[in-house]
Amino acid sequence: MDDPGVTGNGGRRPDCTEVRPGSRDPRQSHVPVLLQEALRWLAPRPGGRYVDGTVGAGGHARALLEAAGGDVELLAIDRDPEALRLAAERLSPFRDRVRFVHGDYRDLDRILDEAGWVRVDGILLDLGVSSLQLDDPRRGFSYQVDGPLDMRMDPTQPLTAADLVNRASRQELADWIRRYGEERWAGRIADFIVAERQRRPITTTGHLVEVIKAAIPAGARRQGPHPARRTFQALRIVVNRELEGLEEALTRAAHRLAPGGRLVAISFHSLEDRAVKQAFRQLAARGGFRVLTRKPVRPGEEEVARNSRARSARLRALAREAGVGVGEPGKAGEPDGDG
């Protein structure tokens, strides 16, 4: 392609992001997690077709393109148009080998069909919220800085975190915070949210943080992570439907692999990792697939020291067995055996 376009949701084309003098280039805040490990388990090669289903600012994607060399092709997907704009800039040296799609990796079958790709040689999914989103107060993901209570990975979708906080029932809030945040004080937090919104709407992250702090007893607040961390995680998961259909999406993605192709998933909390583990185990049990990582791959101390957000990352990898009949084959043969 001569120019990287974005398909889906209006066919917008990613512009280069303007960085004002003295402002922080958002690409600099995006540090790919488990980068070398992801490359090792994907084992990219020249001539292959690969999918980055959560391309973000393009850090993993650029490393994959550089490592594979040759005429490798990449399908770069993301729900966030801003991320796609940054990725298009970062991947501009490879623009003739990359297609950008504004979409959801859970729609991978449709996206691949529209691209005319029957099978692929590798799929990478870096699940969860990105540093780009966390570091922008306007996106409303962070409990560290004040901003609108938004939390949408795709800002074109209508539902925001403020909608949930101000409209959901007390029971819904408690259930979400308990299930997706694994928060001990879920009931009290839901009670305090309902009481506060009756006085005035909760529309900013700072306001919600104060409500959560008031709900959690002082002794509990002094222990463990930030008191709002689990509640923010829960709301973010609900707003973006992060766990909805995850196992099914992984299963469908695996069946688009060519013989010898690999699926690598990086998760950041136990609920995601559990879904990845379960999907991979079931695929291997049914035959035709092999789990490459008996235990999740974790970042080393050096990486965590450079990037504290890598601390909770877990990588799992799956391979489609070579020689399995899957209809029209992809481009790759058996990858190097490092599993």
Strand and helix map with partners:
Elements: E1 6-7, H1 35-42, E2 49-52, H2 59-68, E3 73-78, H3 81-90, E4 98-102, H4 108-115, E5 120-126, H5 131-134, H6 161-167, H7 170-181, H8 186-199, H9 205-215, H10 218-221, H11 229-240, H12 246-254, E6 257-267, H13 270-286, E7 289-291, H14 301-306, E8 314-320
Parallel strand pairs: 1-4, 2-3, 2-5, 3-4, 5-6
Antiparallel strand pairs: 6-8, 7-8
Low-confidence stretches: 1-28, 326-339
The CATH class of the largest domain is: Alpha Beta
Classify the secondary structure makeup into a structural class: alpha/beta
- Overall shape: it is globular
Nearest-integer average pLDDT: 88
- N- to C-terminal distance: 35 Å
What report would you give on this structure?
With 339 residues, the protein is an alpha/beta fold. It folds into two domains: 6-128 and 243-320, Vaccinia Virus protein VP39 (Rossmann fold, 3-Layer(aba) Sandwich), CATH 3.40.50.150; 143-240, Orthogonal Bundle (DNA polymerase, domain 1). It has 14 helices and eight strands. The protein has helices at residues 35-42, 59-68, 81-90, 108-115, 131-134, 161-167, 170-181, 186-199, 205-215, 218-221, 229-240, 246-254, 270-286, 301-306, and strands spanning 6-7, 49-52, 73-78, 98-102, 120-126, 257-267, 289-291, 314-320. It has an eight-stranded mixed β-sheet with strand order 1-4-3-2-5-6-8-7, sandwiched between helices. Helix 7 packs across helix 8 (186-199) and helix 7 (170-181) crosses helix 11. The chain is globular, with a radius of gyration of 21 Å.
